[in-house]
C-alpha cells in the first residue's frame, strides 16, 4: 500500500509516543520535501527535529517536481506537496488533518485519512491503548471537537 503523509499525523504521533504505529500499519510512508522541512523547522519540537535528522528506513522523502496544481496554492506547502506526491505515485492513502487540505484532496479524487483514522485503525488491530492515546493527544495543541473523541472511544468501548 502506497501511503503519503502530511506533517500533522507524523508530528502528533511522535508527540504522543506512537510514531511506530505507522510502520505497523503501513510498510512505508512517503513524504514530500516540504513536509520534511516542516518537521525539521525550528518551530517543531527539538526531539522531532532530531528524529527527522536520522529518519527511520520506513519514512521515504520524495521530491515533488513540476508545477503544482493552481488549486492547491491556497494550502500550506506541505499539504499541497503531499497532495501532489500522492497523485504522482498513485497513492492508496493520503494522511492529513487540516480541513481545507482534506477537501482539496477529495476533490482530486484521493482517499484520505488523518490522525484519528490512524488511531482508530491501530485500536481496531489492538496496537495501542486508545483511551491513553487520546488522553496524551489532549495534552497537545491538536484541535478536534470533544464529541468526535468521545464517539471514537464509544466505538471501541461500548
3D architecture notes:
- With 158 residues, the chain is mainly alpha-helical.
- It has a single domain (3-114), classed as Rossmann fold (3-Layer(aba) Sandwich), CATH 3.40.50.
- Helices cover 51% and strands 10% of the residues.
- It is built from nine helices and five strands.
- A three-stranded parallel sheet has the order 1-4-5. Strands 2-3 form a two-stranded parallel ribbon.
- Helix 6 links the parallel strand 4 (93-95) and strand 5 (112-113).
- The longest helix has 12 residues, at 77-88.
Secondary-structure blueprint of this entry?
Layout: E1 3-5, H1 7-15, H2 21-25, E2 29-32, H3 33-40, H4 46-53, E3 59-62, H5 77-88, E4 93-95, H6 99-107, E5 112-113, H7 115-124, H8 130-137, H9 146-156
Helix pairs in contact: 3-5
Describe this protein with a few key phrases.
mainly alpha, 9 helices, two-stranded parallel ribbon, 5 strands, three-stranded parallel beta sheet, Rossmann fold, 158 residues, 51% helix
* Quaternary assembly: single chain
Q: In CATH's first tier, which class applies?
A: Alpha Beta
User: What is the CATH third-level topology name?
Assistant: Rossmann fold
In which order are the strands of the major sheet placed?
1-4-5
Supply the number of helical segments. Answer: 9
Major beta sheet, specifics?
Answer: 3 strands, parallel
**CATH homologous superfamily title:** 5'-nuclease
User: How large is the radius of gyration?
Assistant: 15 Å
> Low-confidence parts lasting 5 or more residues at pLDDT below 50?
none
User: N-to-C SSE series?
Assistant: EHHEHHEHEHEHHH
Number of domains: 1
Mean pLDDT equals: 93
Question: DSSP strand (E) fraction?
Answer: 5-15%
Helix content: 40-55%
Amino acid at each position: 500500500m502506497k501511503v503519503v503523509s502530511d506533517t500533522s499525523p507524523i508530528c502528533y504521533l511522535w508527540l504522543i509516543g506512537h510514531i511506530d504505529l505507522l510502520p505497523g500499519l503501513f510498510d512505508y510512508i512517503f513524504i514530500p520535501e516540504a513536509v520534511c522541512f516542516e518537521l525539521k523547522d525550528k518551530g517543531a519540537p527539538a526531539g522531532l527535529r532530531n528524529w527527522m535528522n536520522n529518519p527511520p528506513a520506513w519514512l521515504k522523502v520524495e521530491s515533488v517536481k513540476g508545477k503544482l496544481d493552481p488549486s492547491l496554492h491556497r494550502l500550506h506547502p506541505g499539504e499541497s506537496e503531499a497532495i501532489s506526491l500522492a497523485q504522482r505515485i498513485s497513492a492508496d492513502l493520503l494522511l492529513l488533518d487540516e480541513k481545507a487540505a482534506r477537501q482539496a484532496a477529495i476533490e482530486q479524487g484521493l482517499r484520505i485519512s488523518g490522525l484519528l483514522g490512524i488511531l482508530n485503525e491501530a485500536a481496531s488491530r489492538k496496537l495501542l491503548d486508545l483511551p491513553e492515546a487520546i488522553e496524551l493527544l489532549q495534552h497537545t495543541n491538536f484541535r478536534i471537537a470533544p464529541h468526535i473523541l468521545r464517539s471514537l472511544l464509544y466505538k471501541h468501548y461500548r
